[in-house]
TrEMBL record:
This is Uncharacterized protein. It comes from Dichomitus squalens (strain LYAD-421). It comes from the Eukaryota.
Length: 146
């Protein structure tokens, strides 16, 4: 009954003996942190993103007939993009020594490049080229001197 429960004294708290922290009981290796990746992993990720961008850019260069019809400065901008991306891949083994800002700029460039719609490239060639030239003018890769 309720009256019996109200008269029952609270349980006696026994002081606990110090225990060994859980981290010393676990034998499995720690799960990698996604917040802080290993520099080698970051370089590999950058390399795969840059390779994907180069593959898409190659579709522009493969359309030689249309490439000749665009303004010369647009062709130069596309060539600068290609040269800088190739430089990144050629120097990727030094990627862990690049500054955080440089790595972010590469990442941002790849993300922005990925937003350009390449579908119907034949009909939309000039629009795609214009978008890539504008992206080049943002200067994400200007720190790379080829």
């Amino acid at each position: 009954p309720l009256a019996a429960r109200l008269t029952t004294p609270p349980p006696v708290v026994v002081p606990s003996t110090p225990t060994v922290p859980l981290q010393y009981h676990i034998s499995a290796p720690p799960i990698p942190s996604f917040a802080r990746r290993d520099p080698i992993d970051l370089v590999a990720i950058v390399g795969s993103k840059v390779s994907a961008v180069i593959k898409r850019l190659q579709a522009i260069f493969d359309r030689k007939d249309q490439l000749l019809d665009i303004p010369h400065d647009h062709r130069l901008a596309l060539q600068r993009i290609g040269d800088r991306l190739e430089w990144i891949l050629d120097n990727i083994e030094n990627g862990s020594s690049w500054t955080c800002s440089q790595q972010q700029n590469i990442d941002w460039f790849c993300k922005e490049f990925g937003k350009v719609k390449f579908s119907g490239l034949g009909q939309n060639f000039e629009r795609v080229v214009k978008a890539l030239v504008e992206l080049e003018h943002f200067g994400y890769l200007d720190w790379i001197v080829v």
